[in-house]
Amino acid sequence: MKILFINFGGLGDEILFLPSIISVKKEFPDSEIALALEPRSKGITSLTNIIDNTLFADIKNKGKYCALLLLLFKIWTQKFDMVISSGSNKFISIFLFLTFIKKRYGYNTGKLSELLLTKAVPLNKKQYAAKMYHDLVRDITDNNTELPVINVEKKAVEPNTVLIHPGVSLLSVKKNMIKTIPAERWAEVVEKLADAGKKVILAGGPDDKDTIETIQKLVSAEKYKNMYGKTRNLRELAELISSAEKFLCSDSAPLHIAVGLGVKTYVIFGSTDDKKLIPQNKKVIPIKADCDCPLRPCLWEKRQTTCDTLDCLNISSENIVTVVLNK
């Protein structure tokens, strides 16, 4: 059996989609799994061994309809038996119908989806995103994979370490979706954790350059181990995360990698909804400001950019360090 999954989004979305793929693979262990996704998220293939083939469609540029048409051509040549799509746009059911794949699963977006899909699944956004995606496959399998699984060689855990990945994607910053505290406050966190006796490790990729450089200017180098730029790819970053006793990060893709590795994780949350982005368990701790903003959480559902005041990110370094040390 050849099964196609379609999930357009960032790397974090692809990681959150993994439980759905895993459950279907358990149901059909001899199946061939293909994933259609955006080029920006191709790194998912280095974090899992469950995807046999990838199809790319760059739907963020001006030629997105051409990209989708080319994707259809690719799909037609591969003769899939089943397709499962996470899209909630009303156009998705038409696209799935045009794939000519016999079994088609997607979210219920109205009468047309009920007509064109094998199963139009109710969309429940008020839950952990991995569970939301997993609803798509509940008619296909009784398997229930609750969390992502990251397939890398886990390293031995280094005692008393706090690995910090402070940044977020530059794409979100350019779109004015601010999801983390200022670099200067991250520097305070690094210093305070080091002064508390923790072995602080600093990590990041190209998008984190400005934040890391600010920390380097403000904090003495002997207070942390600098691993910025030393992980050459996502797999090496995942391996580094697996070696940490505790992991502190922003609402970004490394968060979901840590969840998939089972590492004790602390996450800075501002305008996004922690209940939708992390599992509700003791291994993942949200750190939030004491903020009475009536719109919070606001990003995506109530607004497409963050506000100017950012009261929801008014979290002191003292509060962050206290949570990391004591929870």
How does this model look, in words?
There is one protein chain. The chain has 327 residues and is of the alpha/beta class. The chain has 2 domains: 2-137, 3-Layer(aba) Sandwich (Rossmann fold), CATH 3.40.50.2000; 158-326, Rossmann fold (3-Layer(aba) Sandwich), CATH 3.40.50.2000. The chain is built from 12 helices and 12 strands. Strands 3-2-1-4-5-6 form a 6-stranded parallel β-sheet, with helices on both faces. Strands 9-8-7-10-11-12 form a 6-stranded parallel β-sheet, with helices on both faces. Helix 11 links the parallel strand 11 (264-269) and strand 12 (284-288). Helix 1 runs parallel beside helix 10, helix 7 crosses helix 8 (209-218) and helix 9 packs across helix 10. It is globular, with a radius of gyration of 21 Å.
List the helices and strands and how they pair.
Blueprint: E1 2-6, H1 11-27, E2 32-37, E3 53-56, H2 64-78, E4 82-85, H3 91-98, E5 103-107, H4 111-116, E6 119-121, H5 129-134, E7 158-165, H6 170-174, H7 183-195, E8 199-202, H8 209-218, E9 224-226, H9 234-242, E10 244-250, H10 253-261, E11 264-269, H11 274-277, E12 284-288, H12 317-326
Parallel strand pairs: 1-2, 1-4, 2-3, 4-5, 5-6, 7-8, 7-10, 8-9, 10-11, 11-12
A few lines on this structure:
By secondary structure, this protein is α/β, with parallel strands linked by helices. It is built from twelve helices and twelve strands. The chain has two domains: 2-137, Rossmann fold (3-Layer(aba) Sandwich); 158-326, Rossmann fold (3-Layer(aba) Sandwich).
Based on the model shown, name its key terms.
single chain; 327 residues; alpha/beta; Rossmann fold; 2 domains; 6-stranded parallel β-sheet; 12 strands; 34% helix; 18% strand; globular
